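Example 9 (inverse folding). The structure is encoded as follows.
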């Protein structure tokens, strides 16, 4: 079988133009834009827009695929870092920087969980990150109870800060990344193991979530 042909240059250009416009619209109104809004923002005709993307979900899929290409470059970069901790920290710094520069990416990832729950985009990157985690743990620089999924989750969590305008989002992301990376260091384990008290911690969280709002206040009624 012959390989599929690459799209004509003008088609590729207009797709990228529309995805750039989608990111601009996201900053203005979230992901709730229509294809007509997208055509206007991109300066293209509605018919052209529908030829490139037949539905709003197709735009989300394309944005998600573009985010994959950005993150794949991060892995190529950290693969060249000699020490494991440098690779782990480099992944976190680069991934959060990409999210800050493209705040639509975290939102599209969340939407993809609904429109394409079986999507495997990005699954090939997980073993590469796990290898860097193992390297850092073998060096004794990363906590032994941390895994690659923890690092991906940290990036997702700090993706919430993309709702802030710049420069606030980058200032806060940098500040909180410093706090988090301190807790990833091997020496931080003296303050407790991540797995030993999970059940007790979950029970405590459930208790706090169902506690009356006035509980514990000195002026609370008896």
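The amino acid assigned to each position is listed next.
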């Amino acid at each position: 079988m012959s390989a599929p042909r690459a799209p004509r240059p003008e088609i590729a250009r207009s797709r990228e133009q529309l995805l750039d416009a989608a990111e601009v619209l996201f900053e203005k109104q979230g992901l709730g834009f229509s294809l007509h809004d997208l055509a206007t923002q991109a300066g293209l005709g509605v018919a052209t827009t529908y030829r490139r993307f037949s539905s709003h979900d197709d735009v989300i899929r394309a944005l998600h695929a573009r985010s994959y290409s950005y993150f794949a470059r991060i892995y190529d970069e950290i693969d060249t870092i000699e020490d494991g901790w440098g690779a782990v920290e480099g992944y976190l710094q680069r991934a959060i920087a990409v999210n800050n520069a493209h705040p639509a990416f975290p939102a599209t990832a969340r939407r993809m969980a609904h429109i394409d729950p079986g999507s495997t985009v990005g699954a090939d990157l997980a073993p590469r990150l796990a290898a860097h985690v193992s390297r850092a743990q073998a060096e004794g620089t990363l906590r032994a109870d941390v895994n690659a999924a923890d690092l991906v989750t940290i990036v997702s969590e700090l993706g919430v800060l993309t709702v802030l305008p710049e420069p606030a989002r980058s200032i806060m992301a940098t500040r909180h990344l410093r706090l988090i990376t301190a807790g990833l260091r091997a020496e931080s384990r003296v303050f407790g193991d991540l797995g030993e008290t999970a059940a007790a911690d979950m029970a405590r969280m459930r208790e706090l979530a169902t506690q009356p709002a006035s509980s514990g206040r000195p002026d609370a009624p008896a």
